Amino acid sequence: MTDSILFADAATILAVREENFAATMDLVAERHPWYRRLMTERGLARGDFGSLSDIVKLPMTEKRDDMSAPEDFRLDTTGLAPEMTAPWDVRYTTGTTTGRPTPLYSTTWDFTTSWRYSAACSSFAASARTTSSPTCSR
Description:
With about 140 residues, this protein is mainly alpha-helical. Helices cover about 45% and strands about 10% of the residues. The chain has a single domain, classed as Rossmann fold (3-Layer(aba) Sandwich), CATH 3.40.50.12780.
């Protein structure tokens, strides 16, 4: 993502969102154990997700889902770019009533993408104070 998308017209932003969604669904359909199983159980395939509006075909993921099989929420990164495979950190949820914390894995890609987005939004927010541009939202 570049800062320029923050100031793009609505059609450009929508096109980028759709492109990012398609790339994400390619990875999910091929490499995400939890969603691959869920899609199979529901008779869904990658082709059933032609646009972001199709995301409603998948249910919301709840914390109990992640807690039940945390390793199934790790993307298989075999063969992906190094920044997508290098672990950044493992954070743990509070144990809630189970007393068992759940690991949340992040890669360098996750961290740098979040950081770039946050930096761009901070930059945008500073400039928006003096302009009538739309707000930055994820």
